[in-house]
């Protein structure tokens, strides 16, 4: 009798374990993408900053080609339900300025808009200026080397977004 009872209990235990609920494992959804294009200008030629009628108006030249702009994404923003207290990574994407002053980068995005930090490098450039020479009594054009800085900016992106903006140093 003890062996039949033991066998019955064992069979019920196997049946319960075999039919117990299992939690379905799901992979997190892959984020989509957002396309960001920034046109970057800098005033390196102050001699052309007047309009046809003599009014002052800044004329922006393109930022030098090859300049690298960094886009920083907090990966917590890519989670539909972020885990409180978890240390999410900061993802950095580099974009290189082309000859037309544009930088294009594809960033991960989800349906909910989130902010991306854009970090601009300091630029050492020659600034063309007009100065009056008191010795010759003439205006002269000179070039002075300067380091130009631009503070960080924030842009919002979401899945499927095509962002086109202009930013000037």
Automatic annotation (TrEMBL):
Signal sequence bounds: 1-22
Q: Would the keyword Signal turn up in this protein's UniProt record?
A: yes
The superkingdom listed in its UniProt entry is Bacteria
Keywords, A to Z? Signal
Q: Which PROSITE patterns match?
A: PROKAR_LIPOPROTEIN (PS51257)
Q: What is this protein called?
A: DUF4382 domain-containing protein
């Amino acid at each position: 009798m003890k062996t039949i009872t033991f066998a019955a209990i064992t069979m019920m235990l196997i049946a319960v374990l075999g039919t117990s609920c299992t939690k379905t494992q799901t992979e997190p959804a892959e984020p989509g993408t957002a396309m960001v294009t920034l046109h970057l200008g800098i005033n390196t030629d102050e001699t052309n900053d007047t309009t046809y009628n003599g009014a002052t108006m800044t004329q922006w030249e393109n930022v030098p080609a090859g300049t690298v702009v960094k886009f920083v994404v907090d990966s917590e923003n890519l989670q539909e339900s972020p885990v409180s207290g978890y240390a999410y990574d900061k993802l950095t994407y580099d974009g290189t300025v082309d000859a037309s002053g544009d930088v294009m980068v594809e960033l991960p995005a989800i349906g909910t808009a989130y902010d991306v930090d854009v970090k601009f490098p300091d630029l050492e450039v020659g600034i063309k200026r007009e100065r009056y020479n008191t010795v010759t009594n003439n205006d002269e054009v000179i070039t002075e080397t300067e380091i130009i800085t631009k503070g960080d900016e924030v842009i919002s992106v979401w899945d499927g977004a095509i962002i086109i903006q202009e930013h000037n140093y």
